[in-house]
Amino acid sequence: MAVAGLVAGCGIPVERQPRTVEPPRGPFAGTAATTPAAPPQAGTVAQVLYFVRGGALVAVVRRVKNPPTVDGHLQQLLGGPTAAEAGTGLLNALAGNAVIAGVRVEGTRAIVELGDPPQGGSPRDEVLALGQVVCTLTARADIASVSFTHAGQPVGVPRADGSLTHSALTAADFAKLIAPA
User: Fold this and answer.
1) How far is 35 from 64, CA to CA, in rounded Å?
2) Alpha carbon of 134 to those of 25, 64, 66, 67, 75: distances in Å?
3) Sign of CA dihedral 93, 94, 96, 97
4) Nearest C-alpha neighbor of 136 from the set 99, 94, 107, 166
5) What distances in angstroms separate CA 31 from CA 26, 58, 76, 145, 174, one per listed residue?
6) Pairing status of strand 153-154 against strand 109-114
7) SS3 for 163?
8) pLDDT, tens digit, for every residue of 3-52?
9) Is 154:171 a contact under the CB 8 Å cutoff?
């Protein structure tokens, strides 16, 4: 009851019976990945890709005729920004920082197979590269999380805060690197 005394002492009335509280409606400022709105075009679907500008992850919406497969979506990311996107300063941190050997899907989790890491990449660029993969794949409605393997075995990867995890990742793990929309 010490908590009730503290709460009552702060001017908040104490209730004898619990009551249901409805959570406020979102979206909320500072939530994880935000996907920029793209003007709808007839006969197309949005394909969200994350590239890098100024050390931040930036969402780009490309309009495609058909929803890409998870592998096709990843291949588009690996292909990097278009010339027009690169003209706005977008870069691909995956180039020279992560070798993606493939992807498979189990339920709503994408499992990305990493090849042998390239030599000479910086830890910051590696985090951005992995963030690009995680944020791009979890922007899809059918993928909730991403985990990584090497030679078929789970591998730890760094989050935006530098901590290493073997757990499946979401865009929230890279939220502090995502540029505001």
Assistant:
1) 16
2) 26, 20, 21, 18, 14
3) positive
4) 94
5) 9, 15, 26, 16, 11
6) unpaired
7) coil
8) 444 334 444 555 666 655 555 554 444 444 455 555 555 568 899 999 99
9) no
